[in-house]
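Field log, afternoon session.

UNIT: design team B
ACTIVITY: writing a sequence onto a fixed backbone
BACKBONE:
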């Protein structure tokens, strides 16, 4: 039995019951909410390990709620569910701060696999290369590779699941250019495309760079991809 706790938010009561039962059968503790207001009330009481969130809900929609939760500093994985599966909609969801985007209808097994990947992804990303450093310096910031923890002079720097996963992937090959395609595969973003990688890079730069427009550590290599260059 897993000790991980999932908050599922959807105004479709039938789907909500199905997901609650399915995730519980697969070892997760599950709390449900039917709209953004209820979700906020739940988050005042518990700290889940991940949120599964419907985009199209009455009142505040899932994308707006995601953006607000990120602005409040919530860093746990958020997976959006929606019937709007166009690439532009997915990018909009990722830009709001979501870690993943699953179109309806979907197979519950796929949702389960994606959740598991987000809940554990930082460990595979950093364990694949045994010789990699355990502590990486990015100016005044330090990234604890095994723990996936970024800290600065004022304490921990909150990263979303997607940001931490991206930093973990880049840390596994410091100083080596990684293509958008390779990064997308490592982050399980193949379906969304390389544009999603650019979105995650932009978000990560806001965390680790003094001036994201003039990056010192996370560089773009035109026509090839991205490279992380640690330093002080």
């Amino acid at each position: 039995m897993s000790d991980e706790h999932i908050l599922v938010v959807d105004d479709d009561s039938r789907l909500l019951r199905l997901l609650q039962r399915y995730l519980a059968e697969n070892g997760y503790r599950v709390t449900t909410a039917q709209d953004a207001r209820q979700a906020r009330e739940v988050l005042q009481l518990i700290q889940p390990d991940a949120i599964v969130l419907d985009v199209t809900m009455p009142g505040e929609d899932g994308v707006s709620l995601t953006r607000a939760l990120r602005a409040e500093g919530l860093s746990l994985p958020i997976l959006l569910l929606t019937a709007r599966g166009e690439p532009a909609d997915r990018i909009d969801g990722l830009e709001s701060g979501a870690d993943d985007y699953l179109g309806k209808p979907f197979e519950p097994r796929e949702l389960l696999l994606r959740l598991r990947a987000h809940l554990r992804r930082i460990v595979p990303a950093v364990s694949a290369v045994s010789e990699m450093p355990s502590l990486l310096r990015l100016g005044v910031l330090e990234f604890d590779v095994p723990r996936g923890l970024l800290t600065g002079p004022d304490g921990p720097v909150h990263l979303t699941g997607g940001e931490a996963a991206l930093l973990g992937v880049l840390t596994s090959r410091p100083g080596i250019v990684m293509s958008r395609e390779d990064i997308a595969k490592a982050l399980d973003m193949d379906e969304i495309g390389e544009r999603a990688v650019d979105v995650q890079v932009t978000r990560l730069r806001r965390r680790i760079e003094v001036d994201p427009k003039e990056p010192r550590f996370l560089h773009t290599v035109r026509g090839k991809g991205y490279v992380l260059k640690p330093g002080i």
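LOG NOTE: Residues 122-131 have pLDDT under 50 and may be disordered.
NEXT ACTIVITY: expression trials, pending approval
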